[in-house]
Amino acid sequence: MASSAFTKAEIEQQPSVWRATRAVVTAARGEIDRLLAAALADPRTRIVLTGAGTSAYAGELLAGELTRRLGRPVEAVPTTDLVTDPEAAAVPGRPMLLVSFARSGNSPESVAAAELVDRLADPAHHLVITCNAEGALSRRYTGAANATAIHLPPATNDRGFAMTSSFTSMVLAAYLSLAGDADVDALANAAETVLDNAADIEKAVTTLAPDRIVYLGSGGLKGLAHEAALKCLELTAGDVLALGESTLAFRHGPKAALTADTLAAVFLSGDAYRRAYDLDLVRELVTSLGADRVVVIGDEPYESGVAHWNVPRPPGTPDALWAIAAVLTAQLTALACSLARGHTPDDPFPAGEVNRVVRGVTIHHFGEGED
């Protein structure tokens, strides 16, 4: 396949694979409800969303909304933190529901994190959301008495280097599993609007030729900003530096990253309270960079002169769901930057400096009294 064909196709397939993801979750509803009834019967159960890299950002995006929906705290703890400091996430002797996100399920930390929770939590419950039914994490927990494994459609197991449709499909599957129903067709329509405007995004990015991109969002959209920045770093092999931060935190030091050639993109929250802070920062960025280097990503334009990348928001859609359509703007931006810099988006690290499935990780034994 051509050098960008996998990545481009996987960005474009998202509306269709979301519909297929809905069907998968619907079919697994009985098993999901059985697991949740057992896990959430005890009010002490700690709910942790985990994964590495993009999969970790799926949890960061969802944690706040799931806390509101479930009426109990939901935390995002990356596997990379859980493995290195397990007792900070899994309190020994306390119940825990671990929701694991995994494209391949073969990253060394994926199984290690889940097994550490099995050792420490009492009892441990697992909801595994993966794009690879043959991965190590899936093999470990499919059919286990304390687990439910959701195998997303095979098309979501992205073959491109960077996670695109796998990320959005896992977020959607987790929301449908834990929070309830969603208007998937409306979200797919919103994504199709973004795809219809792909040429405009590519032209804007190519014309501006940013040396770095700053993505900003409030609440759960901070997780979206992190994922958006990672896409740029991955697909440009680090040639275009990217930063993701929350709207308010940006002023506390990270604003130093701005240069005359920076592109700043703000994901506008659908919540009026959070949006007020987002718009305050948009005004500040326009003063710092000029209107031509600021992009507002949302369901309505900011003001004349400031670029607006339209992502329709179906009525009542929370940020965590709207984000799966909004992230397409960042995926398209990263693809455009990669091609403009002469990279191969499907394989931006041909020498293997960074790998699609992480290599080189040694999992050390965790036990009391060891050095």
Automatic annotation (TrEMBL):
InterPro entries xref list: GatZ_KbaZ_carbometab, GlmS/AgaS_SIS, SIS_dom, SIS_dom_sf
What are the annotated GO cellular component locations?
plasma membrane
Per UniProt, residues of the SIS domain are 36-187, 197-348
- Gene3D superfamilies named in the record: Glucose-6-phosphate isomerase like protein, domain 1
Picking any one GO molecular function of the record gives:
carbohydrate derivative binding
In its UniProt record, which GO terms are filed under biological process? carbohydrate derivative metabolic process; phosphoenolpyruvate-dependent sugar phosphotransferase system
What Pfam family does this protein match (any one)? Answer: SIS
Keyword tags: Isomerase, Repeat
Looking up PANTHER family in the UniProt record yields: D-GALACTOSAMINE-6-PHOSPHATE DEAMINASE AGAS-RELATED, N-ACETYLGALACTOSAMINE PERMEASE II COMPONENT-RELATED
Q: What is this protein called?
A: Tagatose-6-phosphate ketose/aldose isomerase
Which species? Answer: Paractinoplanes brasiliensis
